[in-house]
């Protein structure tokens, strides 16, 4: 096929862009505005001091205003602690604990000396007739929450400093890993075929050697008495040497290696052309990235967006969790007090006649719990779920934006008539602007579907943690099946979204149409997809191990992790390039106006197309 046909096909399949999934785009914008409003409301109502500082039974912060010299909270025994609201109508019921007076349930009978420097200020009691206290089993915890938080912050700072020092010390290793990642990707254009076939041949010889070794061990065990015992008769043993003394074990090894060897040989015989296609695509992807080097650094933008999303979600979650107001209840020693367990205001309680009435003598307005009576406080759990859902939505949208941007840049390389002369200037920036301007709705639509599935998986994990100690095997089994199904569903949706974003970037259609076309296009080339995925995954995994292992002698393990992340960022761009070119080629070869020629032959005959 000549250049004129290639150019005509490109113009036909690169239509003028128009906005897609406008309704979802509007919903996405409204949700973002609502998310910002939620953060503002949470910031106005929340108080992070509730997380940093403990509060006493009156809602006062320990060590703060009102309790400046009492920074440590006095804790009840958590296993025996009861809500004050539960104890309103209770009195000391047993003969094991003597009744002292009607204030027994309101004030702990512990001396100030025993709870020195603690936040709670308990009243003493004249124990003239009592030998035991009404409330027992108290524990004093000297390290308060503020001290623990400070220690944790100091530890985190020290760890960050150590990481920075290690990175600074081993900056040469990280720089080498960055350069090696780039060189590895560029050299795949020339070494992909050699590296892949060398590995396949090496695996074949290793399997053959394994079969020979198993046969030798089997021949030696034939003369050993007792080696003919079945594995089932032996049972379970932690010592694996027991199984290695059985002939049946080596027979299983020999059969497994033989079947693997035969499978690889059969696949090489019948899928040789598919492997050649995969190698040709890898070489072409390396060539494309050599022309559009800016794509290698786009993961930095994604990392920044993810950091912003995670930070905003974490801060909003903390403010939402600490936005409950202190709720005070009327605590009365009299059982027939009509105001018992009613909400009260401690600032105005003494000016009321509640404590002066005959049926409510001695009543007090005591802190009960953190909550609230407004709709905002009643639906805090729903707001936390909304915060989590929007967070997942924004994270998946950021990843979708990266995939669509890279796909548009690499597609512009593919449809260029002459390379690199006809590649548009700044292809990455142009693709990014197209994705934001025209396809925000489509990207948000796909990200929303994936986010809902992820939220369901998180809820299932939460339920699994709650039911872990349950003996109901039916519910555990159903929950396990649901977790497995939604895990598979998430993987499928993630894979289809990736290909749908590529089709959106290339042809500018809405998400559903693009996903449908991508699905049927992949189904018509299912063998090519399987071979390409396996070959690409293998080569990229080999590159990651090579690059991360290159700095493995560094004194800090953090540098090893950073090197692996650098390689992963580069290779994720390379994998996106391979997938984009593959869909372009599949669409090109299945076009009704083109002949059904082999893809590898097309690449060899017309590399510019």
Task: Produce the secondary structure layout.
Elements: H1 3-12, H2 22-45, H3 49-52, E1 74-76, E2 138-140, H4 145-169, H5 171-221, H6 231-234, H7 241-244, H8 247-270, H9 272-291, H10 298-321, E3 325-331, E4 343-344, E5 364-371, H11 375-378, H12 380-414, H13 427-438, H14 440-466, H15 473-507, H16 511-524, H17 526-550, H18 557-589, H19 599-605
Antiparallel strand pairs: 1-2, 3-4, 3-5
Helix pairs in contact: 2-10, 2-12, 2-14, 5-8, 5-9, 5-17, 5-18, 9-17, 9-18, 9-19, 10-12, 12-13, 12-14, 12-15, 12-18, 14-15, 15-16, 15-18, 17-18
* Strands ordered across the widest β-sheet: 4-3-5
Give the beta-strand count.
5
Strand content: under 5%
What spatial form do the alpha-carbon principal axes imply? extended
Instruction: Tell me the count of domains.
Output: 4
Measured as a percent range, the helix fraction is 55-70%
Largest sheet: 3 strands, antiparallel
Low-confidence stretches: 1-13, 80-163, 165-169, 593-609
**Which structural class do you get from the secondary structure elements?**
mainly alpha
Global Rg: 34 Å
Q: Give the SSE string.
A: HHHEEHHHHHHHEEEHHHHHHHHH
What is the oligomeric state here? single chain
Terminal Cα span = 9 Å
Give average pLDDT, whole number.
74
Number of helices: 19
Keywords: Antiport, Cell membrane, Glycoprotein, Membrane, Transmembrane, Transmembrane helix, Transport
Organism: Myripristis murdjan
Catalytic activity: choline(out) + n H(+)(in) = choline(in) + n H(+)(out)
Subcellular location: Cell membrane
């Amino acid at each position: 096929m000549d250049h004129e046909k290639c150019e005509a096909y490109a113009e036909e399949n690169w239509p003028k862009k128009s906005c897609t999934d406008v309704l979802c785009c509007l919903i996405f914008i409204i949700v973002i505005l609502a998310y910002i409003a939620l953060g503002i409301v949470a910031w106005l109502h929340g108080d992070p001091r509730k997380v940093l500082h403990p509060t006493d039974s009156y809602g006062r912060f320990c060590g703060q205003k009102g309790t400046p010299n009492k920074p440590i909270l006095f804790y009840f025994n958590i296993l025996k602690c009861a809500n004050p609201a539960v104890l309103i109508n209770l009195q000391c019921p047993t003969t094991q604990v003597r009744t002292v007076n009607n204030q027994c349930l309101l004030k702990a009978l512990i001396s100030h000396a025993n709870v020195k420097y603690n936040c709670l200020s308990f009243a003493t009691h004249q124990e003239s007739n009592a030998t035991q206290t009404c409330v027992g089993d108290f524990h004093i915890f000297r390290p308060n929450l503020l001290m623990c938080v400070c220690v944790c912050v100091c530890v985190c700072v020290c760890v960050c400093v150590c990481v920075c020092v290690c990175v600074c010390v081993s900056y040469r290793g990280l720089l080498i890993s960055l350069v090696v990642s780039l060189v590895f990707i560029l050299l795949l254009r020339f070494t992909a075929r050699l590296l892949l076939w060398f590995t396949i041949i090496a695996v074949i010889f290793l399997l053959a050697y394994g079969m020979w070794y198993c046969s030798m061990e089997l021949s030696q065990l034939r003369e050993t008495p007792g080696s003919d015992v079945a594995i089932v008769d032996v049972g379970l043993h932690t010592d694996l040497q027991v199984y290695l003394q059985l002939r049946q074990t080596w027979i299983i090894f020999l059969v497994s290696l033989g079947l693997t060897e035969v499978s690889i040989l059969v696949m090489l015989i019948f899928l040789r052309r598919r492997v050649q296609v995969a190698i040709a695509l890898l070489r072409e992807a390396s060539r494309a990235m050599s022309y559009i080097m800016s794509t290698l650094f786009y993961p930095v933008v994604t990392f920044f967006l993810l950091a912003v999303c995670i930070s905003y979600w974490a801060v909003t979650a903390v403010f939402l969790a600490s936005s409950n107001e202190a709720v005070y209840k009327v605590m009365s020693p009299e059982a027939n007090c009509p105001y018992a367990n009613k909400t009260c205001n401690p600032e105005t309680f003494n000016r009321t006649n509640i404590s002066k009435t005959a049926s409510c003598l001695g009543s007090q307005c005591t802190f009960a719990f953190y909550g609230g009576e407004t709709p905002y406080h009643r639906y805090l759990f729903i707001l936390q779920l909304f915060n989590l859902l929007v967070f997942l939505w924004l994270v998946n949208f950021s990843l979708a934006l990266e995939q669509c941007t890279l796909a548009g840049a690499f597609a512009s390389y593919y449809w260029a008539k002459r390379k690199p002369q006809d590649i548009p200037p700044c292809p990455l920036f142009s693709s990014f602007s197209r994705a934001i301007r025209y396809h925000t709705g489509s990207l948000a639509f796909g990200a929303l579907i994936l986010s809902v599935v992820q939220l369901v998986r998180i809820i299932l994990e939460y339920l699994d943690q709650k039911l872990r100690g349950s003996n109901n095997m039916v519910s555990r089994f159903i929950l396990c099946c649901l977790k497995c199904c939604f895990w598979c569903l998430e993987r499928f949706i993630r894979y289809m979204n990736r290909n749908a974003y590529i089709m959106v970037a290339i042809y500018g259609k809405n998400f559903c149409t693009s996903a449908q076309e991508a699905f049927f296009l992949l189904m018509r080339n299912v063998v090519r997809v399987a071979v390409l995925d396996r070959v690409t995954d293998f080569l990229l995994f080999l590159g990651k191990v090579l690059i991360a292992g290159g700095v493995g002698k560094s004194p800090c393990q953090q540098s090893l992790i950073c090197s692996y992340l650098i390689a992963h960022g580069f290779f994720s761009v390379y994998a996106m390039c391979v997938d984009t070119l593959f869909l372009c080629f599949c669409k090109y070869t299945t076009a009704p106006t083109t002949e059904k020629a082999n893809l590898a032959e097309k690449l060899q005959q017309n590399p510019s197309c």
